[in-house]
Design brief:
By secondary structure, the chain is mostly helical. It has two domains: 86 residues, Arc Repressor Mutant, subunit A; 64 residues. It has nine helices and three strands; from the N terminus they run ααβααββααααα. A three-stranded antiparallel sheet has the order 1-3-2. Helix 1 runs antiparallel to helix 2 and helix 3 crosses helix 4.
């Protein structure tokens, strides 16, 4: 008796590979593998999917799918959409790559960068009144605070730049590096 292929096995190999790799990459970035795989499936899907279809395709527990969809909705990269004639909830992923990237960056900033800045500011403030803190320790906290503040400022500036301009800036990367004199010769002399 042969087993019927599961729904994942019926997907084209390139799509299977993308979903698996996106899940692996998500895991490396601190995102649950299933959350990332569901996002990948919805991103490449031609039409909205309901939770049962996602469960069947990825072979994961229905409760895991429900929790993962809630997580993706908090990131604002997946949304619930109505499908005429079907009372079940269906979901789609944001398909604009720039919008998706900006939403992810915003959530990461809120969850990671903002608390880091607050903690660094508090630590620096406490360090000034604690004679057990060495000058080196205070310098390192201040250097990390300065770096984090600059990244936060840069993020705010990049939000104001239209995606088409950002893309042009990225594509000009080599030219900008060369114009600023940071070519391979300059890198080699810094070593």
């Amino acid at each position: 008796m042969t087993e019927a292929p599961n729904a994942f096995d019926t997907l084209p190999p390139a799509i299977q590979r993308f979903i698996l790799q996106w899940g692996d990459m998500g895991g490396q970035w601190g995102v649950n593998r299933t959350v990332a795989q569901i996002h990948a499936l919805l991103y490449v899907s031609d039409h909205p999917l309901n939770a049962e279809q996602i469960t069947e395709t990825l072979g994961v527990a229905r409760s895991n799918v429900s929790n993962s969809l809630k997580e993706l909705q908090t990131w604002k990269i997946v949304k619930r959409v109505p499908v005429p004639g079907d009372r079940r909830d269906h979901f789609t992923a944001e398909d604009d790559v720039w919008e998706m990237a900006m939403r992810i960056a915003n959530v990461r900033k809120e969850r990671e960068l903002n608390p880091a800045l607050e903690t660094l500011e508090a630590c620096i403030g406490e360090s000034r009144d604690d004679n057990r803190i060495t000058a080196t320790q205070l310098e390192r906290l201040q250097a990390l605070h300065e770096f984090t503040t600059n990244m936060d400022r840069w993020y705010g500036q990049m939000l104001k730049v239209p995606p088409s301009t950002l893309l042009r800036m990225i594509k000009m990367g080599d030219k900008i590096v060369g114009l600023l004199g940071f070519g391979s010769k300059a890198r080699d002399s810094d070593r």
